[in-house]
Amino acid sequence: MRNTLPLALLLAPFISGAQVVINEVDYDQIGTDNAEYIEIKNVGETAFPLQYLRVVFINGNNGGAVEYRTIQSESWPALAPGDYFVICGNQSLTINCDHAATPATNLIQNGSPDAIVLISTLDETVYDVLSYGGDVPGYTEGTGTSAEDTNLQDGLSLSRWPDGSDTDDNDTDFVIGCPTPGAANELDPVDCALSTGVSAINLEDVLAVVADPDGRWIDLYFQQASAVPLSISLVASNGALLSHQDLGTTSVARQRFAMPDRSQLVLVRVQAGDQWITRRVVMP
Fold first, then answer.
1. What SS3 class is residue 218?
2. pTM as predicted
């Protein structure tokens, strides 16, 4: 049964310059939505007690504003300044997930529009609101986002840009970026592609990654016009560093990484000079 939020909460003022913000949301994947998450960032200068935070999800269907899910926990820690806290539906498919919520699939509605609210459990202060896919009455900062996550391409998220920036206007603050739960938001100049065993490689791409059908290795192909210092890191879904290699100064690289632990999700991060490129790989 869905209940509307109390009128006092609906009318509560949004806090300009709040200490915690909704920093990133990935709410739509190809097929079943089984890798959804919301990332919260502490943009303040002191630790924030997450144990007193409630995350409320609002259904904006047909011009309404109805609560459909609430997530909170007294066991949540204090969030240090500049740190991130990730709530996900599927911990095995979400890197750096701090709290696995239920359900594991279809955790966050796709809009359009819908909204997410950060609220104090102590005094009902509304710290931050994100209305995506348009305006949700009573739950929009400025104008709802025109940028929308999509199920036509994986490896995308709704990201606050620049990371942590809050102008109190949802449409200004959020763009489509690369999924980086628990880390600073990134915009990839090519694509934020999710590789699932692609067989054909176009070497005109800046970066391509291919997973072995048996999950034993990942092949990486990199090419660009000019040589730059190149390094590659592979990170598992639990945040563990699987491999790191400095490849010197080059414009082309082909590298194979063994995957002995059979991680389901691997984040491939390439630093090419001052540019960061990220790919997510779901292992077979």
1. strand
2. 0.69
